Amino acid sequence: MSDGETLLVVLAFLYLSDCFAWLKKGSVAVASAWGGRFGVKTGAGILGNSRGSLLPLNPLPPFGQLYIAHPLPISISPDGICAGNLHSVAPGVSAGPSAAALAFEQVTAVSADGSILRVNKARFAKCGSTAQAAALAELIKASKAAKSHKREHLIREFLGSHLSKKSASKFLVDVRAHVLRLTVLTTPFFLFLFLFVPWMATRTSASTVLIRGAIGAVLLAAAIGFFFYRAHSKLFPRERFERISSLIKMVLCPPMAIQAVNHLTIPLLATFHPVVVISILRPANTKPFIEGFLRRIQFPLAVSISDPVARRVCQWFGELQTELVTRFLQESDPELLKSAISPPAREGKAAGYCPRCLSQYESSSADCPDCPGVKVATFPPPSKSPL
Ligand SMILES: [Zn+2]
User: Fold this and answer.
1) Which residues place a Cβ less than 5 A from the ion ligand 1?
2) How many beta carbons lie within 10 A of that of residue 56, not counting itself?
3) Is 311 in contact with 305 (CB distance < 8 Å)?
4) Are 154 and 139 in contact (CB under 8 A)?
5) pLDDT digit string (tens) for 112-122?
6) pTM, whole model, 2 decimals?
7) How many angstroms is it from 141 CA to the middle of ligand 1?
């Protein structure tokens, strides 16, 4: 292998290690690989485990754009908090039967440690982002301090901001100029590292190229890091640790500066409800995704949580989220809401259907075997043809 080829392999290895994003189980990615229409992904990554999977990013700038939205990992009611949420946006994710719960009288200390939400100095829940953990810590503190009858208002206000299309749209407008500025720098930097430097290595001595290439790469990465730091300070003023650690990585390992745009966009909409992000970016598979989600929240499964406090908190919070998300969709996309709860096309002799999973049955008297607690619905009688 020639010196130029060896250099190219080393740079490519370093760079490709930064071309993945972690998609937490239950979180929703809205991605566009080549700048075309977005698509929704939930846990479709590689090297996955029970906590999530890696989502590959497009390594070729200026292509590829990714936003990740995280459903709330906890439930909160005027009575207390529970480390689970019945309201799963991604299919097949919900609060487990042993979800921990605490009444507000039992809560003595709340803090956010990175993306970990700590209650009474113990780990309570893993959030999707540091911003989400900080926001939930503040909500729990405010609810704990408030009188019981004022807590519902606080929780409704919090969910209102979580479902604010106006605020999410503003973030998207604000990030545009920063993305453009960084793209103008990262695209030539990518060409410099992966075309110009290896080409130079084939024409002159490797040591000369290494010295000149390293100086050029550090200078360009520092310029990208400077604009990234400035953009990050404006968009995420409280995320100082993330900002500094990303900057250090970019300067010490220049290929990592190429993905600066994704480091800005991935956490941009992390504190908004996935339905808001989908409603703004309009991915190609919006209709089936939102319809499935609506059916799951309109026709929830029987709650399997054993602890009565946890069950009460999760049910209260689940019903409130259903009310607010349904209202949000009623205002932003009423047709989608209507089609989601319409019966499916009748097959053969089917008498009923499950309104949650849409399986069809010849009897309509029992619960759906796949969806405990969801009654099979009867097909409406065929409309009479006009005489
Ligand atoms: Zn079903």
Assistant:
1) 354, 356-357, 368, 370-371
2) 15
3) yes
4) yes
5) 999 999 999 99
6) 0.88
7) 39
